[in-house]
Amino acid sequence: MKKVLFVFGLLMMISMGNSFAQKYALIDMEYILKRIPAYESATKQLEAMTEEWQAEVDKEVETVNAMYKKYQADLAFLAGSEKTKRENEIVAKENAIQELRNQYFGPEGALFEQQEKLIKPIQDNIYEAIKAISTEEGYALVLDRASATSVIFASPSIDISDLVLSRLGYSK
To answer: Which residue has the higher pLDDT, 104 or 140?
Structure first.
């Protein structure tokens, strides 16, 4: 009799534990971002800036390559001081190119600043919408399907991407 009561009590605890199961949801950030016109516009602006800056860097690289080829061609005719002077000019130009790359593409460069200015507000709005929906619906976890490479399958019924878009004012 004690064994039966113990097993019954154990089953009751397990079933009660399941009744307190936490709710989960999925979003697809790529899906959401593709449906926000401001994001597409910001991405195009960033791509245009990147192409412009990269062209400037490439032009400077071509200049230094031409300087080096001319140096190589003239090497036999250069005196010691002239040789050193030309080498220093080439090194200085290479350093300037690296500085230019950092100015545009470095961790605190112009591209990063533009991303912060154009993309971050959109991401913040999405985050706030997800947070509000999660609080209202009682989701303990919202997982991004686009960045979660280990998600093999997830039921479409727990995907709240369209709900997030609706919250942001975008419909299907």
So the answer is: 104
